[in-house]
Please model this.
Amino acid sequence: MMTRPVRSDLFLQTLRFSPVAMNMSLRTLSLALAGLALTACAKKAAELTPPETAADVAAAPEDIDALEAQLAAREDQLRALGAGPPPMAGGGESALAKREELDADAQSAGDVTTKKKSAEQQVAAEAPQPSAAPAPATERAGPSPVAGRCESVCDITTSICQLRDHICDLAPRHADEPRYQQACERASTDCEFATEACHACA
Amino acid sequence: MTRPTWIATLLGAVVGAGVMLAGLAQAGRLAPAPRPEVLVTLAQTVDAEHRRVDLLLKQRDFAGAIAALEQMRTIAWPEAAVAGDAAAVLRHDVYGRLLRLRLDHPDVDPKVPDALAELVGEGLGADYKSIATNAFTARLVGLRGEIAEKQGRDGDALLAYEEALDMNRALLQQALAGAAP
Model:
């Protein structure tokens, strides 16, 4: 990646300052053309690069059109590689047109948009609530190794404690089946251990 | 962003991704992608879709978000033989987010529990147990439990929850050992 501007600069220097530019050898010409092509590719890539941070996305919600265009380009690439979605049946556009018409509860809404929680929030989230999506690996790469590790530990703690809630909700409905109660106790132990690990880490 | 910063960021991302994938491959935790270009394109597509869904949810357009993920679901997901295990993990991520939204917003384009169970089975695939333990598969298995509960199959729900719990326990051990994926 670093070589792109270097080659491009060399090419420009050759054209501007070399008195023998008009007598370039075939090899020099090839290099020059390659430099041009790489420069063009770099510009194209820059145009296609998505916003780097979630803050960029949040700051420009109107960029959804750009994202859709980017998505379409990616899907075209996927099709070219042998995988890809079938032609749009209008589902996406029609759904987009339905914005703002729903009044679903806000409590459920926040869970999926908030992929990263602080350690305190995650442990506090032990109470039953809709589970959050696990943070993708690309998002975990941001913080320092220790912070990233603690974030992972606390993310996993949240998942374990939510599973504990589900399991222990089942137990009262099956009081005559010991395996439900045993599973609840085991899950509770796991949740406690994970919570301690999260606290110790954070 | 200035050009040097952009280049440094891009270089960092590429090197970081390369080191991560090389590490996972060396550790034998992810089957390598015979056609890495398919995996890279798939990952970029999934990333773009997630960003779009983020925006739709920010606008409280749950129907739009569900429709977008449904559209993503319909792609011909590459087999592990083509794009490695990471492709299956990406699929589990998309299906997991879709099912979470469907469970949280049952009034939007409603689906009966049996249809959701079919969806979760489709997302997991037949050989998900052969994939290295990861958070996305664990989440999808947990969602299988929630759906089984809605179907009135508490026994299957308990099994799914326990399976997801086992996965998360393994992930916690890895994280505590400093080797979290």
Notes: Residues 24 and 55 of chain A are 48 Å apart (CA to CA). The radius of gyration of chain A is 27 Å.
